[in-house]
Design a protein that fits this description.
It is built from 13 helices and 7 strands. It has a 7-stranded mixed sheet. α8 links the parallel β4 and β5.
């Protein structure tokens, strides 16, 4: 086949497939449909990018190959064993169900084309969050954090700025790479994940890249430019020591490389350091001729990375009043009245927990709910 590349049905372990995804009913047909839904090929990718036309040769070829696959399904004798299968743990949402009522191969191909154009193809159509593994391959985060902005408190200005920038990005308008700095536990990472949960149905996806995977960025950019999605490259808790030069991979893809950053990619980075890269006192002076001769050149090189972020947002530690506001908000979410005893315990808890923050408030409420030691 020129488009689809499915295993021969005799080679498929249908019981394993059904139990893995929790599918029930006609498992053989659902296998064929699931493989078509998640297939990344020239047809599905063209639909995802909005390029497909029904009068094209590629579309007619897709209809022909869909018909061949359905004929193979009809001729497969082993399907009788999996005609009405019941898994041990049924899935909550069976993505194949909406395709089962097709009337012909052409009808199924049309439904697939609509699905690809609206939701994309491959694993990007099934998951909202991804990360780079050790080999630099994009793999899904199957238990993505469901956090929403309704569960985040006190940083309204920062959240609104992030939303506005992300909406501009999704609308094809000029948007800025964002650097979120400030104290730990103040919601920097959570706000980025909340954006994905808010705009996932508009084709927004997150790819988390750890510091030790930055060298994969130059080869990742061309791959993402070919997709019909918008991507936030998320780098969490980023910082570099003064003698660490790996920041140059990030600096290059942000600005400075001969190849422009794809228009469907934006970078959101969190860091506890405003300039990301550690500076030493000797960077600012001659220090008796030790180190670099041109100290300002060295200093500018280190500051230039943060300069590549057009949107800089600072998350300061909450005031005592704001900390209690966060506690009250979390308590309300859990259906708990924030009475005088709870507020008193929350204030005592933050003294022993190392300071006020949204994370401290959450940990306090977890301890309060489970009846554990509040220290």
């Amino acid at each position: 086949m020129y488009i689809y590349n499915l295993k021969e049905l005799e080679m498929v372990n249908f019981a394993e497939f059904a139990e893995k995804f929790g599918f029930s009913g006609d498992i053989v047909l659902k296998y064929v449909i699931y493989e078509l839904i998640t297939s990344e090929n020239i047809f599905s990718l063209s639909c995802e990018r909005g390029l497909m036309k029904e009068d094209s040769g590629l579309y007619r070829l897709a209809c022909h190959e869909t018909a061949e696959l359905l004929e193979e399904y009809r001729e497969y004798e082993g399907k009788e064993f999996f005609k009405d299968y019941t898994p041990l743990i049924p899935c909550k949402e069976d993505i194949t169900e909406e395709f089962l009522g097709f009337k012909s191969p052409e009808d199924l191909t049309c439904r697939l084309a609509e699905f690809y154009s609206k939701r994309g193809c491959g694993e990007l159509s099934l998951y909202r969050g991804f990360r780079l593994n050790r080999e630099g391959k994009v793999v899904p985060v199957k238990g993505f954090d469901p956090i929403t902005f309704e569960s985040l408190f006190c940083y309204k200005y920062q959240f609104e700025e992030l939303k506005a920038n992300t909406l501009a990005f999704l609308s094809g308008k000029p948007a800025r790479n964002a650097l979120l700095t400030g104290a730990r536990g103040t919601g920097k990472s959570s706000s980025v994940k909340a954006l994905i949960n808010m705009y996932k149905d508009r084709g927004l996806r997150l790819i988390e890249v750890s510091k030790d995977k930055l060298h994969f960025l130059p080869e990742l950019m061309p791959k993402l430019s070919e997709r019909g999605f918008k991507f936030i490259i998320f780098i969490d808790d980023l910082s570099f020591e003064a003698d660490d030069s790996s920041y140059k991979y990030l600096k290059s893809v942000l600005e400075g490389s001969a190849e422009a950053k794809p228009s469907n990619v934006i970078f959101y980075v969190t860091s506890n350091r405003r300039h990301i890269i550690a500076e030493k006192w000797e960077d600012r002076g001659d220090m008796s001729q030790r180190g670099e001769i041109h100290t300002m050149d060295q200093l500018n090189e280190k500051v230039s990375l943060s300069d590549r972020f057009g949107l800089k947002l600072t998350f300061l530690l909450p005031s005592p009043k704001e900390y209690i506001e966060i506690v009250r908000g979390i308590a309300a979410e859990k259906g708990i009245e924030a009475d005088e005893n709870l507020i008193k315990a929350a204030n005592a808890y933050e003294l022993s927990a190392g300071g006020r923050s949204g994370r401290t408030a959450k940990h306090f409420m977890d301890a309060w709910l489970c009846g554990g030691e509040l220290n």
